[in-house]
Amino acid sequence: MLSKLGRIDSRVLYLILLIAFIVPLLCPLGLPMIISDEIKRTYDLIESLPEGSRVVVSFDLSPGGYDELAPACAAVFNHMAMKGLRLIGMSFWDAGPSLLDRSLAGSLYVDKEYGDDYVNLGFLAGGENAMAAAARDIRGAFPSDFHDNPTANMPIFEGVQSLKDVEMVIVVATGNPGVPEWIRQVGDPMGVPIATIVIAGLVADYAPYIQSKQLIGMIPGLRGAAGYESLIDMLGRGTAGLDAQSVAHLMILIFVLVGNIVYFAERSREKEESAKEGAA
Amino acid sequence: MLRTATLAVTFLAGIIVILAFFFDVGFLATAEARVQDWGVIVAAFALAMASINLVQVNIRRISSSDDATEKICAVVLLAALVVMSIIGLTQGPTSDTYNVLFDGIMAPGQSTVWALGVFYISSAAYRAFRVKNVDAGLLLFSSAFVMLGAVPIGEVIWSGIPAVSQWIVDVPNMAGMRGMLIGAGIGAFSGGLRLLLGIDRTEVG
Prior knowledge:
The complex is a heterodimer of chains A (280) and B (205).
Chain A: H1 2-6, H2 10-26, H3 37-48, E1 54-60, H4 63-83, E2 86-91, H5 96-105, E3 118-123, H6 127-136, H7 138-141, E4 168-173, H8 179-190, E5 194-198, H9 203-211, E6 217-220, H10 221-232, H11 237-279
Parallel strand pairs in A: 1-2, 1-4, 2-3, 4-5, 5-6
Chain B: H1 2-22, H2 26-64, H3 68-91, H4 96-128, H5 134-149, H6 152-157, H7 161-196
Helix pairs in contact in B: 1-2, 2-3, 5-7
C-alpha cells in the first residue's frame, strides 16, 4: 500500500488538488476572516484622506500575477472611489496599463469622470530610473496618457508637479521594479506614505519594510482582498477565493505529510531487509 | 577611443546623480533631470534592441535547429511578435483588436502558466520535501506554520497558528531578510563604484 503511494502518478495529485480548489468555491466553508494590522493600516490611511486627495497607483505587475491581485485591487479602488479620492495610475511594467484599465473598468471608478477623478498614464520604460523621472516631474514623464490624451490640461494634475504633491502611493506588485524601488525614489526622499497590494509569495520579502515603517500597509493577495472586502463591507472574489486557498494550503501540507510517511516507512523497510541480509 | 568615451559618459552620468542627491544645487538638479530623461530614452531603445535580438535568435533557431517542436515554437513566437507589434504601432495599445489579443491570449496564457505552478509545487512537495535531517525538519515545520497562518483554516485547526506564523515572519525571517538586504546594498554600492571608476568594464566589452 505504502509503496503504491510512493509511486503515485502526479496526475492523481493534480486531480486531488483541483477538487480541493473547486469544492470550496462551489460550497463555501465560511471560515473566519483574518484582518492583519498591515491590511487595517492601509484601510485606515485611505479612510483618513480627505475627499479629492490624489493617490498614485503604480500597476507594476504581469498578467500572470494579476488574477491573484485583482480582487484586492477592486476592493481598494472601490474604497477610494467611495471616499472620493482621485486615482493617478501608471506602470513601469509593459502589461500594467492594459491590466489597470481592466481593473478600473470593474470598479466604482467606471462611473467617475476620466481625467478629473482618475487617469491611466500608461507605461514608462526604464524601471527605477523612470520612477525617479516620474517622481520629479509627473507630466514631463507622461506628456500623454495611455489613451493618447495630453496630460498638460487634465484637472486631476492641478497643483501637482512632482509626487511630493500626492497624498499616498499604492504599489500593486508582483516583482521588481516594484516596492523597494518606490521606497527608494519616493517614499524615503519625498516622505510620501506607501502601501502595497502584493502577491502572497512576496510577503516575507517586504516584511522588513513594514517593520521599519517604510511601508505603511500591505494587502497580501487573496487573504488581503478578503480582509479588505470585509472592512469596506463589500464581499467579492477575495472572500470567495479564500476558502479555496485555505483548503489548497492544507492539501499541500497533507501531501508533504503523506510523502514523509511513505519515505520513513520505505527507509525502515530497507534497513530491516539489509539487517536480515547481514544476519544471513 | 570609443571605450574611453563610454567610460567617461558612465562616470559623468553617475557622478551627476550622486552629487545631486547630496547637494541641493540648481544646475546639478537640472543635470540630474536630463540624465534621468536620457535614461528613459535609452531604456526605450533597449526594448527595441531586445526585439531585434529576439528576431535574430529565433530566425537562427528556425533555420538551423533539428528539433521540429523548437522550430514551431520559434515560428509562433515570431508571428506573435510581428502581429502584436503591427497592431500596437498602427492602431495603438488601447484598440479593440489589441485588447482582444491581450485579454484573449496573452493574459489568460500567462495566468495559466502562473497557476500551473501550484500543481508542480504540490507534486514536488509530495516527492521531494523529506525530513532527512534537522535542517529539513526546521524548514518543513516553519513552512507548515507560515502556510497555515496565511489562511483562515490555520486558526480553525489551532488558535495559536497565526501567532507562531507571525513570529516566524517577524523574527527569524526578518533577521535573514535584513541581512540579505544590507548585503545586497553593500554589493550594489561596491558594484556601482567599480563601474563609475572604470574598474568594471564589462559594459564596454
